[in-house]
Specification:
heterodimer; A: alpha/beta; two-stranded antiparallel sheet; B: about 140 residues; mainly alpha
């Protein structure tokens, strides 16, 4: 199974080359943010998406780069992140050398991940309430509920194979990629488009403040500090990412260059709490072990782990303990970093985005570094975290970790092609 | 200069609500017609200021242009009262419903989907919306 195309609309860049530059330079994408014109709100930093303006509830007013030729009939049904995701998919399809005709053969499917658009859902429901629930926008449902991405993109791109949307909070993107892998492995599809997206606006960010999950650090340079002392929550981001996954024979027959191989994936759950991970990360530990077993890879072969770590006190600790049991306890010491130190936490998009970073790392021979704003938490000191990106790290086998609400944990295993 | 972003409450910024058209400020009308062709916005603002029904017709005709599906061979500048919404402009039922909801919001008059289902031409649309406004008790002194 190979990844043949990638597309990025993220806080650290809106193209493969921009993202690669940011990763190589360990350049974060954070900015100060004024939320709802309220100085009372403790959240001061976000990871914005640049060059797009999807802040209005009126899609006719949206602005996006001209290179993406989307017509009004397509855009009218999209959530804001749908524009990010569609743009990323255009990039990925171009890189994979897939044309519009290639997508409609019934052998190409699309799995998507997003949390829907709370902004548009709120807007459309408010409008209905103002009309005494008698009238509302005919596209209110399809533009706002959590399947919006797959509804719109599958229709627009003419997908006649398997389509589905995954809703598992922060593991949504990872689940979409994992089940896309299975779809090909089981012989149901030859090619799967995996597309994830998330809004970055008031409604997508501030509810997490109610859970005390967001950092109140006002400094964009230090607010996101996974595994570090003083971490106080994550920095929210959004965007869109796409990966093209193909049967290796199919890719070879098309003459396309593989970016990396996807070897295996697996998942396991904590069975513990709706919002907090198990304190020892038992589900993530199990997910990592199962993934390596599925891929018939020994833990000593893992060169790099892209950690889920979001910069929350409990989440990062749980993952570090899981990594200790899986690696350190066996005297194995892979490089570990959380690219959320540069991007922030992209929620439903995170797993797919970071899988794409893993593919990029394998293809370009880098190990993403994690600049540290403060010393590593002593409880995480066993982790082998590079403070700067290793330009000649040349990883051969990479593990991507991802955890979410309800104790969901998903891992992917990638190898250099 | 440090980068700074402003995340506004979009639902508050864009609240046409049940406001009748003539109660809206020019800025509110411009906001609601963001993305529409400039002639639609200009005509709508003229209608708000001078209440000539011909300006309403012009605004509606220009606004209809936004809803023509991409790829339709019908030239936008050829839309007339005789132009058929479905056969000539290629609008489907979802687009027609979307367009009528926009007029509902913009003019601040309730338009049920079933009321507009019989409309065939742009001219009938003009008459329908004029009648909708004409049914409002707040109207005074419209001119042609």
């Amino acid at each position: 199974m190979v990844v043949s195309g990638l597309g990025f609309i993220t806080s650290i860049g809106n193209s493969r080359s921009e993202v690669l530059t940011s990763l190589c330079q360990s350049r974060h994408g954070f900015a100060s943010c004024d939320l709802a014109e309220s100085k009372e709100l403790p959240v001061k930093v976000i990871g914005p998406v640049r060059e797009f303006d999807v802040s209005s509830t009126n899609s006719n007013a949206w602005v996006w780069p001209q290179e993406y030729d989307f017509d009004r009939q397509f855009v009218r049904g999209l959530p804001p992140h749908g524009l990010y995701a569609a743009s990323a998919l255009v990039q990925a399809l171009r890189e994979a050398g897939l044309s519009a005709d290639d997508l409609i053969d019934g052998q190409t499917g699309m799995y998507c991940a997003s949390g829907g658009s709370p902004m548009l859902l709120r807007h459309h429901l408010n409008r209905m309430a103002e009309n005494q629930w008698q009238r509302g926008h005919p596209l209110g449902v399809v533009s706002s509920i959590s399947g919006s991405l797959n509804f719109n993109l599958a229709a627009h791109f003419g997908i006649r194979g398997s389509t589905c949307g995954f809703v598992s909070a922060c593991t949504s993107g990872s689940h979409a990629l994992g089940f896309a892998f299975d779809e090909i492995a089981l012989g149901r599809q030859r090619c799967m488009l995996v597309v994830a997206g998330e809004d970055i606006n008031l409604e997508s960010v501030l509810p997490f403040q109610c859970m005390n999950a967001l950092s109140s650090n006002p400094d964009p340079a230090t607010a996101s500090r996974p595994f570090a002392v003083g971490r106080d929550g994550f920095v929210a981001t959004g965007g869109g990412v796409a990966l093209i996954l193909e049967n290796e024979e199919h890719a070879r027959a098309r003459g396309v260059q593989a970016q990396a191989r996807m070897v295996a994936w697996s998942q396991a759950s904590d069975g513990y709490h709706v919002a907090h991970p198990h304190p020892q990360g038992i589900g993530l530990r199990s997910a990592m072990e199962r993934t390596m077993a599925n891929g018939r890879v020994d833990r000593a072969e893992i060169d790099y782990v892209n950690a889920h770590a979001t910069s929350t006190p409990t989440g990062d600790l749980a993952e570090s303990l899981a990594l200790r049991e899986v690696f350190t306890a066996h005297k194995v010491n892979p490089l570990v970093s959380s690219t959320k130190a540069l991007t922030g936490h992209a929620l439903s998009l995170a797993g797919a985005m970071e899988a794409a970073f893993c593919v990029l790392a394998l293809r370009e021979g880098i190990v993403p570094g994690q600049p540290l704003a403060s010393p590593i938490d002593p409880a995480c000191s066993h982790l082998n975290i590079p403070h700067t990106t290793l330009a000649a790290g040349n990883p051969r086998v990479v593990l991507n970790n991802n955890s979410g609400f309800g104790g969901s944990n998903v891992c992917h295993l990638f190898a250099a092609s | 200069m440090p980068e700074s972003w402003h995340l506004a409450d979009a639902s508050v910024a864009f609240m046409p609500g049940p406001l009748f058209f003539f109660e809206k400020s020019p800025d509110q009308i411009r906001l609601e017609l963001s993305g529409f062709p400039a002639p639609a916005i200009d005509a709508a603002l003229r209608f708000r200021g001078e209440r000539h029904l011909a300006d309403l017709d012009d605004a509606v005709t220009a606004a209809v242009g936004l809803y023509i599906p991409k790829g339709s061979p019908f030239p936008h500048n050829a839309i007339s009262a005789q132009t058929r919404l479905r056969e000539d402009l290629g609008m489907d039922s979802l687009t027609l419903t979307e367009m009528m909801f926009k007029f509902d919001e913009l003019l601040g008059v309730p338009i049920e989907t079933r009321e507009a289902a019989h409309l065939q031409t742009v001219g009938q649309l003009h008459e329908f919306l004029r009648a909708k406004l004409g049914n409002s008790e707040d109207l005074k002194g419209f001119t042609e």
